[in-house]
C-alpha cells in the first residue's frame, strides 16, 4: 500500500488489515494530503491502533516529481487525521529503505503476484519506474485512487481534477504510460460511497469507534459544506474494497492521459471514450459501483 495518510487513507489501512484477506508486504508513504513527516507518523499511529506490528513502513517522496507541494489541511485537519490520535506515542521504527526502492525490490521478488494499492499521489511509483524501468513488466497490477473521468466538472481541486492526480500530475503521466495493468478508482465511483453518522454509530462499542468518530467529525463537516449533508466519501477504502472484491466495480479499458500544461485543467484525467486518438487502452476506468454492498462490508470489517 502506498499512502498519504489522511483520514480516508487511515480507514483504508484499517480496512485492509481487518479484511484478513491481504498479505500486506509493506506500506510506503508519500507527501500528499499532509507533509511527509505527518503522513508517516499518522501511518505508524494507525498500525499501532490496529495492534499491527509486523507491517513495515517505508518513508518516500518528500515532494512531487516536478512541482511544488500542495496539501489538504482543510479536509483532513491540522495533523491529517482530525487530531484523533494526538495522545498516542509512536514507538514503531521506520525502515531504512526508501519507498521507491522497496517498490523495486518487491516487484523483482514477487513479480505478477504483486498488487500496488496506490491511494496518494503517484510520486513513489514514478520514481521507481524512472530508476528501474524494467519493473513495469514485473508488477501484477496497480490499483489507483485518483482522477475524475465521466463526471468531469465535479473534481475536488479544480472542476476537472481530483487531488491525488492534481498533487503530482507529472508522476501520474509517467505511471499511466508505462504499460502497467492499471485500474483507476476515480471520483466517479468514490463519490457514490458516502459514510454518514449512521454508519459510524454502527461501530459503537467496537475497537475503532472512537477513532472513526473523532477522525471523521471534521471530514463530515467538510461534506456538509460541500454536499449539504454530514457525510464523507470513502475514496481510499473503496480502492482497497476493489482489490478484495473486483465485482464491486464495473470497469472498462480506455486510453487515459493526464493534463500537465493547462492552468484551467491541470491534473485532469482525460479519457478517450470514442477512440478518437487511435491509441491503445492503458487504464481500466470505473463506470459503476455496488455502493450498498461495499458500505456494508466496510462497516462489518471495521466492526470486527
TrEMBL record:
InterPro entries: Inosine/uridine_hydrolase_dom (IPR001910), IUNH (IPR023186), Ribo_hydro-like (IPR036452)
Assigned keywords, A-Z: Glycosidase, Hydrolase
Gene Ontology biological-process entries: purine nucleoside catabolic process
Protein name: Purine nucleosidase
Organism encoding this protein: Lacicoccus alkaliphilus DSM 16010
Domain Inosine/uridine-preferring nucleoside hydrolase: 1-296
The UniProt record lists the keyword Iron: no
Organism domain of life: Bacteria
UniProt-recorded Gene Ontology molecular function terms: purine nucleosidase activity
Amino acid at each position: 500500500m502506498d499512502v498519504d495518510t489522511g483520514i480516508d487513507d487511515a480507514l483504508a489501512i484499517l480496512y485492509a488489515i481487518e479484511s484478513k484477506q491481504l498479505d500486506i508486504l509493506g506500506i510506503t508513504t508519500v507527501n500528499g494530503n499532509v507533509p511527509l513527516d505527518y503522513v508517516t507518523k499518522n501511518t505508524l499511529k494507525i498500525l499501532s491502533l490496529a495492534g499491527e506490528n509486523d507491517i513495515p513502513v517505508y518513508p518516500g517522496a518528500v515532494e512531487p516529481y516536478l512541482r511544488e507541494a500542495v496539501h489538504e489541511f482543510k479536509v483532513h485537519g491540522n495533523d491529517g487525521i482530525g487530531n484523533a490520535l494526538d495522545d498516542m506515542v509512536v514507538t514503531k521504527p521506520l525502515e531504512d529503505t526508501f519507498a521507491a526502492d522497496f517498490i523495486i525490490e518487491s516487484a523483482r521478488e514477487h513479480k505478477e503476484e504483486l498488487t500496488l494499492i496506490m491511494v496518494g499521489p503517484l510520486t513513489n511509483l514514478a520514481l521507481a519506474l524512472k530508476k528501474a524501468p524494467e519493473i513495469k513488466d514485473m508488477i501484477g497490477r496497480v490499483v489507483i485512487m485518483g482522477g475524475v473521468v465521466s463526471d468531469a466538472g465535479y473534481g475536488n481541486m479544480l472542476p476537472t481534477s481530483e487531488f491525488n492526480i492534481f498533487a503530482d500530475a507529472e508522476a501520474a503521466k509517467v505511471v499511466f504510460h508505462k504499460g502497467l495493468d492499471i485500474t483507476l478508482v476515480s471520483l466517479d465511483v468514490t463519490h457514490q460511497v458516502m459514510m454518514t453518522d449512521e454508519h459510524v454509530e454502527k461501530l459503537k462499542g467496537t475497537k475503532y469507534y472512537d477513532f472513526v468518530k473523532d477522525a471523521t467529525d471534521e471530514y463530515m463537516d467538510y461534506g456538509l459544506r460541500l454536499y449539504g449533508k454530514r457525510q464523507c466519501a470513502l475514496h481510499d477504502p473503496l480502492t482497497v474494497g476493489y482489490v478484495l472484491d473486483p465485482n464491486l466495480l464495473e470497469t472498462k479499458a480506455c486510453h487515459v492521459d493526464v493534463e500537465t500544461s493547462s492552468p484551467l485543467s491541470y491534473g485532469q484525467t482525460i479519457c478517450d471514450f470514442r477512440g478518437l486518438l487511435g491509441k491503445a487502452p492503458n487504464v481500466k476506468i470505473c463506470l459503476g459501483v455496488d455502493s450498498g454492498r461495499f458500505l456494508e462490508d466496510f462497516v462489518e470489517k471495521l466492526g470486527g
